[in-house]
Amino acid sequence: MKNSVLFVLLVFFSISNAIACTCVFEKQSLHKKVKIAYATSKVVFTGNVIAKKNIPDQTDNHLKLDLIRYTFEVINPFKNTEGNETIDVISLADGGMCGYTFVVGKTYLVYARTSESYSDHSEIKTSYTTGLCDRNNTIRNVNKRELRKLRYLKKRKQ
């Protein structure tokens, strides 16, 4: 009996730990990936993270989804933003649930979309969200060809 209980617990914890974020990317050129990410994002920009605020889940569901609101100072706008403005972007706090962790003081390339998913949180006024599967990256790790492609897409859109 004791072995059966241990086995059930082991299986339960193995399954619960296996539920994690999985990003599925097709094998495509960088050009195509950037073009798709640009098209599916509401805003694209490089910016400095100037603030971070944890927002605990206030819903009654059993799956707690704590959020983080990051405030960015836009440096280089590529889509639907202006330079020198601030933008709030929401991400899940847990990377296992596809949340992306930004660090205050660092500069990032950010792709964000609009979402009403978190409208039940009274503290959230923004509709921009992003996650681990979006093309976010620290600016120092972004491929120069990606930045060139974004400049081209911005110019083409105007």
TrEMBL record:
InterPro entries: TIMP, TIMP-like_OB-fold. This is Tissue inhibitor of metalloproteinase. It comes from Jejudonia soesokkakensis. It is found in: Secreted. Residues 1-20 form the signal peptide. Keywords: Secreted, Signal. PANTHER family: METALLOPROTEASE INHIBITOR, TISSUE INHIBITOR OF METALLOPROTEINASE. Coiled coil: none annotated. The keyword Secreted applies.
